[in-house]
Amino acid sequence: MRPLGLIAFVVLAGIAAWFAVANRNAVLFSLDATRPGGPGSSFEVPLFAVLLLGVLAGLIVGALYMTGRQVALRRALKAEQARAARLQRLLSEETLRGLPPR
């Protein structure tokens, strides 16, 4: 790992640890918007867990989106490279046809 990346990791890990210690109060997390606090759909978790899981979910969704875009771009690049190779081949054939025979 490069030194700057290591420094950034240590700083961010320290901030995350400080954030977790500062926000360890329990909050009610409910999965049912019509009956918040229902016994089967809600539970108490630390506030930092809810926030960090939200950030993690956002990172995962962003990574999946970027992966999909990257696949599409690679597919387009491959098609353009094939097109360029085909055009190069046609150009060389036309050039060879225009040369006088030996």
Provide the fold topology.
Layout: H1 3-22, E1 26-30, E2 42-46, H2 47-98
Antiparallel strand pairs: 1-2
How is this structure best described in words?
The chain has helices spanning 3-22, 47-98, and strands at 26-30, 42-46. By secondary structure, it is mainly α. It has one domain (18-98). A two-stranded antiparallel ribbon has the order 1-2. The radius of gyration is 28 Å and the shape is elongated. The model has no long low-confidence stretch (mean pLDDT 86).
Helices and strands, in order, run as HEEH
Largest sheet: 2 strands, antiparallel
Mean pLDDT: 86
Number of strands: 2
Q: Which structural class fits the helix and strand makeup? A: mainly alpha
Strand content: 5-15%
Radius of gyration: 28 Å
- Terminal CA distance reads 61 Å
Q: How many helical stretches?
A: 2
Please, how many domains? 1
Helical residue percent? over 70%
Q: pLDDT below 50 for ≥5 consecutive residues: which ranges?
A: none
Principal-axes shape call: elongated
Strand order of the largest sheet: 1-2
Give a brief description:
With 102 residues, this protein is mainly alpha-helical.
Descriptive keywords:
102 residues; mainly alpha; 71% helix
